[in-house]
Amino acid sequence: MNHNQQSSEGRHDDDSALSDFLASLMDYTPTIPDELVEHYLAKSGFQCPDVRLIRLVAVATQKFIAEVANDALQHCKARQTSIIKDKRDKQQKDKRSILTMEDLSKALREYGVNVKHQEYFADSPTAGLDPALRDE
């Protein structure tokens, strides 16, 4: 077999896999509703009647959001670990992770999204807790 035949067969396999994937999107219901994706695509000037493409954008968006949320969680855990090291003599009673705008901003910055938030946001891990439970 020469190089052109191998290239043609590889392209055919890729086209077949893409067709199968696009066909599977018709049976898939993404977390992000089609109407919401269509709204934001239309708002940006993109119109497409193909539901498969709408769902492809929804799946890509869902993946992006999941990756950002996971990265923000990792920043949160790293921050809370450093707080525990600073307070070695005190025991941590509450093992919950408290995600802050700072954690989310750091995660988004890794993807090229810069977030600026107002000063009045409650970025303290103890914000909203009963004053008797605060460790400040």
UniProtKB/TrEMBL annotation:
The lineage of its organism: Eukaryota, Viridiplantae, Streptophyta, Embryophyta, Tracheophyta. GO terms for molecular function: promoter-specific chromatin binding; RNA polymerase II general transcription initiation factor activity; translation initiation factor activity. It is found in: Nucleus. Keywords: Initiation factor, Nucleus, Protein biosynthesis, Transcription, Transcription regulation. It holds the Pfam family TAF10. Belongs to the TAF10 family. GO terms for cellular component: SAGA complex; transcription factor TFIID complex. It comes from the Eukaryota. TAFs are components of the transcription factor IID (TFIID) complex that is essential for mediating regulation of RNA polymerase transcription. The keyword Transcription regulation applies. InterPro entries: TAF10. This is Transcription initiation factor TFIID subunit 10. The keyword Membrane does not apply. One of its GO terms (biological process) is transcription initiation at RNA polymerase II promoter. Its main location: nucleus. CDD domains: HFD_TAF10.
